[in-house]
Write a structure and sequence with these properties.
heterotrimer; A alpha/beta (351); B alpha/beta (245); C alpha/beta (177); A: 351 residues; alpha/beta; Rossmann fold; seven-stranded mixed β-sheet; five-stranded mixed β-sheet; 40% helix; B: 245 residues; 38% helix
Chain lengths: 351, 245, 177
């Protein structure tokens, strides 16, 4: 049996990354993800040939990631909301250059310097591109510490598969809390070889270039078309947890930590004779539109709840194609939604 | 017939796109000669900047990545950390290195990353059409200092070699010019030495090359060389500033 | 079973460690656990606190509105959380620092002079273990032997003597239940 360890979410991400063969980390401290950078320092500085750099800025960190990814390294950076904003230019470059890497965003309240408490206000930024130009990240939204670990490993694999950056979109609460976690066996030899495209020694082959631009508009459009095709291919990776969908009175759509709070609301609601169904997108990009579409007709009312002003609600509306009445409830600024609040909102809607 | 002069092997056959009289061509050649002489071209990864030399990836016959504006030393750090046995160099202009990328160059030098930086200082932004650079001289007229650089509001030109030499980390730092054959010989030596410094695992190396921009200076190539000698060299003295390992 | 515990006090009283040991012990028993430090603004107010859940089922929300137990290490913590405790719940009060009585009459209350006992043991810092001992004895949420194991893991950097002292504090606290 694999050992269960009681770990903080932030540390579980770090251990999972190392477990998945990540040997290169570049980052800059910011609350509430600082345990992750500290964990990577503690672990990577003791591994022969591994690299940990506390960079001079978020800009430098993401551009170090760019270089490390170009050299074929399995590489990660992490930050929290304002720091992720700073990384956006680099993320856009990495996407254009079609390089794999994992970016962790442990979200906090915004906008601006915001607060250090948990939030989900970076959904648009994460799922719609974030920087300049037409692109998407693969975005995974864990809701437990175990999932932080599992999805971190998955993020590396998907990122390699599509040669596109993948983001773990967590929040301060997930990052700070401790839960048991186990690390299943992972075969580092299964990591795809990057020899066919990574930069390095060019003995016996032509010199290679990695160029995130093209001054010829037609050629640049070709790059965009290639990326677009990749995003179409990626749609099959969409994942959604479906809970309690047997004849629900109302369906709640929530991701990450909020989905767990909804699960407690489901239990409480049962005592009041109310049946709440839950749809929990695990991948935010690609968004599990098909699962949402198949299920929305099962209840008259849909409630989207997020720790934001309502960002995912747009994707749910698009997926529902007008087939359901969709409401939204959210808290922001770092205020965590309570199960009781969700239940009250549900009762209000069912009145 | 005996061949006495040829294009370095580390350059491709693509003709340079630089303006007449610009020194980028000579600098490219010197870097390529250094790679040839040291036999490292096949193990070298270059990092091209944003600026006139963004097309450097077409000219050097080695693996090359184009970095974001100012971030070449960070990108080079990532490359070198993953591939420590490769030789990594960045090729950066003055706006790239001494303005938007100030933090990256200072910290790469301070960590003594084992990379080589070729820093081209022509006292002006070239590609964007001749705006003031951090290295633009006092009183120098540019698009964004149309009445001359006024130190009262625009600061004094930054001496990168002197600045970086104050860092208490290993490094090789030199400034060279190309306006006469004797200077070019010295420049080639310095560039080769900088790469050797990296090959020997000694740490960070940087060669600042004073360069002309006839187009944006509004001078002929010959006048540009004279202006560089008369105006730039007195403010940016040539020589080796640091050799610590 | 489902225990939802809020542990609160001043920063520096070892509040987070109390929570961690309960969670760790629960995990050693094969239960589902979660540990959440004070974080949301709804829990602010001059106290350091954490929420621990020990459950035989999957832990849903780590955020708890109405805990089944409260461990109050100082008066502001009691003031803040007393009214939130579920009916028939448990409130463990650090009598050394809390002069007032618990107002609720629908909960079980244990008063422990944690600081005084810690002082008797020669180290004020183990007051947290005294009150934890009392909570374990009262709630039987997890087994004391597993708290000992968790303690050994958490304090692996500390001396044998320090671990022994912490265990002694747990045992002394357990007498109050």
């Amino acid at each position: 049996m694999v050992d269960r360890l009681l770990m903080r979410g932030n540390e579980a991400i770090g251990e999972a990354a190392i477990h998945a063969g990540c040997r290169y980390y570049f980052g800059y401290p910011i609350t509430p993800q600082s345990e992750l950078i500290a964990y990577m320092a503690k672990r990577l500085l003791k591994i022969e040939g591994a690299t940990f750099v506390q960079s001079e800025s978020e800009l430098a960190a993401i551009n170090m990631v760019y270089g490390a990814a170009a050299a074929g390294g399995r590489v990660m950076t992490s930050s929290s909301s304002p720091g992720i904003s700073l990384k956006q230019e680099g993320i856009s470059y990495i996407t254009c250059a079609e390089l794999p890497c994992v970016i962790v965003n442990i979200m906090r309240g915004g906008p601006g310097l915001g607060s250090i408490q948990p939030a989900q206000g970076d959904y648009f930024q994460a799922t719609k591109g974030g920087g300049h130009g037409d692109y998407h990240l693969i975005v995974l939204a864990p809701s437990t510490v175990q999932e932080l670990a599992d999805l971190t490993i998955k993020a590396f694999d998907l990122s390699d598969k599509y040669r596109n950056p993948a983001m773990i979109l967590g929040d301060g609460l997930l990052g700070q809390m401790m839960e048991p976690v186990e690390f299943k066996e992972y075969d580092i030899n299964s990591i795809p070889s990057k020899e066919s495209w990574a930069l390095g020694s060019s003995h016996g082959r032509e010199a290679r270039t990695i160029v995130p631009f093209n001054l010829d508009a037609g050629e640049m459009e070709k790059i965009n078309n290639r990326l677009k095709q990749k995003y179409i291919d990626m749609q099959k990776e969409a994942e959604c947890e479906v809970v309690n969908m047997d004849n629900p009175d109302i369906i709640v759509v929530a991701y990450g930590i909020v989905a767990r709070i909804v699960k407690t609301a489901i239990q409480k609601a049962k005592k009041d004779g109310i049946n709440i169904g839950l749809l929990r997108p695990i991948t935010l990009y690609p968004f599990p539109s098909a699962v949402i579409r198949e299920n929305v007709h099962k209840a008259k009312k849909i409630l989207v709840t997020e720790m934001s002003m309502g960002q995912m609600v747009e994707d749910v509306e698009l997926a529902a194609c007008g087939k359901a009445e969709i409401s939204f409830y959210g808290r922001t600024g770092g205020v965590v939604i309570s199960p009781v609040e969700i239940l009250e909102e549900v009762k209000k809607l069912l009145k | 017939m005996k061949k006495v002069f040829e294009k370095p092997k580390s350059l491709t056959d693509v003709p340079f796109t630089y303006c007449p009289g610009c020194h980028h061509g000579i600098i490219h050649r010197l870097v390529a000669e250094a790679l040839d002489d040291l036999g490292i071209a096949k193990d070298t990864i270059g990092v091209a900047p944003v600026g006139c030399a963004v097309l450097a990836y077409l000219f050097f016959d080695c693996d090359i990545i184009v970095a974001a504006h100012g971030r070449a030393p960070a990108t080079a750090t990532g490359l070198k950390r993953v591939k420590p046995d490769n030789i990594v160099f960045t090729y950066q202009g003055d706006g790239d290195l001494a303005s938007i990328g100030t933090a990256e160059i200072v910290h790469a030098a301070n960590r003594s990353e084992k990379i080589t930086v070729i820093f081209v200082n022509n006292a002006v932004y070239g590609m964007t059409g001749g705006q003031m650079a951090p290295t633009t001289l006092e009183g120098q007229i540019t698009q964004t200092s149309p009445y001359g650089r006024d130190p009262k509001t625009m600061g004094m030109p930054i001496r990168v070699c002197e600045l970086l030499s104050t860092l208490n980390s290993p490094g090789y730092i030199a400034r060279v010019a190309l306006t006469k054959p004797a200077y070019i010989v010295k420049a080639k030596k310095a560039i080769k030495k900088a790469f050797q410094f990296q090959i020997d695992g000694k740490g960070f190396s940087l060669v600042e090359v004073l360069s002309t921009c006839p187009t944006n200076w509004g001078l002929s190539p010959k006048e540009s060389n004279e202006w560089l000698e008369q105006k730039m060299i007195p403010y940016y003295p040539l020589g080796e500033f640091k050799e610590v390992f | 079973m489902l225990d939802e515990i809020i542990i609160a006090g001043f920063g520096g009283q070892g509040i987070l460690l109390i929570g961690r040991l309960i969670a760790q012990a629960g995990m050693l028993e094969g239960k589902q656990v979660s540990w959440m430090p004070s974080y949301g603004p709804e829990m602010r107010g001059g106290t350091a606190n954490c929420t621990v859940i020990v459950s035989s089922e999957e832990v849903a929300s780590p955020v708890v509105s109405n805990p089944s137990s409260l461990i109050a290490m100082n008066q502001p913590s009691l003031d803040k959380f007393e009214s939130l405790v579920e009916k028939d719940g448990i409130i463990i009060v650090n009598k050394s620092l809390i002069s007032r009585n618990v107002k609720r009459d629908d909960v079980e209350v244990v008063e422990v002079p944690a600081n005084d006992i810690a002082n008797e043991l020669g180290n004020l810092r183990v007051a947290n273990m005294v009150i934890l001992g009392s909570y374990i004895a009262k709630s039987k949420s997890v087994k004391m032997e597993n708290v000992f194991r968790a303690l050994e893991e958490a304090l692996y950097r500390q001396s044998e003597k320090m671990i022994k002292l912490n265990k002694e504090a747990l045992e002394r606290g357990a007498m109050f239940c």
